[in-house]
Structures are given as structure tokens and as C-alpha cells.
Design goal:
There is one protein chain. The chain is an all-alpha fold. It has one domain. Helix content is about 70%, strand content about 0%. The protein contains 3 helices and no strands. It is elongated and about 60 Å long. The two termini are about 15 Å apart.
Length: about 70
């Protein structure tokens, strides 16, 4: 296996792990006394970072898939 294939495999497992570990509907500590307000509040900075990082990994996965397919031909 080449370096690109190993990187592709690592990104695949990273995306899967991030999706399985994170909970997109995790309650926010500052939601107050009304439980309904927690549903409409924005996500924390940490959650936004994880989401953006996951989208970056997905884009990188897509690019690597195209590169590996092109190199295999």
C-alpha cells in the first residue's frame, strides 16, 4: 500500500469515528430553565470546530478518492 492509500484509509476511519462519537444534539450548558430553548440555540465553538473539521476530512477524502482512481488507471 502506498502513502496515499494509507492516508485514505486513515481519513476513512477518522470520519467514521467522528460521526459515531459526536452527538449533534448534545445539550448546551447555558440553555436556561426552558428545555425548548435548548433545541433552538446555536452550537458551541467546540461543536462547530468538530463539524468543520469533519467536513474538511470529507472533502479531503473525496479528493484523495479521485486522485487514487486517476493514478490506478
Amino acid at each position: 500500500m502506498g502513502i496515499l492509500q494509507n492516508l485514505w484509509l486513515l481519513i476513512t476511519f477518522s470520519i467514521s469515528a467522528i460521526i459515531l462519537i459526536t452527538d449533534p444534539k448534545e445539550p448546551i450548558a447555558s440553555s436556561g430553565t426552558n428545555p425548548v430553548s435548548g433545541l433552538f440555540s446555536s452550537s458551541s465553538k467546540g461543536q462547530k470546530f468538530i463539524t468543520n473539521f469533519n467536513w474538511f476530512l470529507i472533502a479531503l477524502f473525496f479528493i484523495l478518492t479521485i486522485c487514487l482512481n486517476y493514478l490506478a488507471v
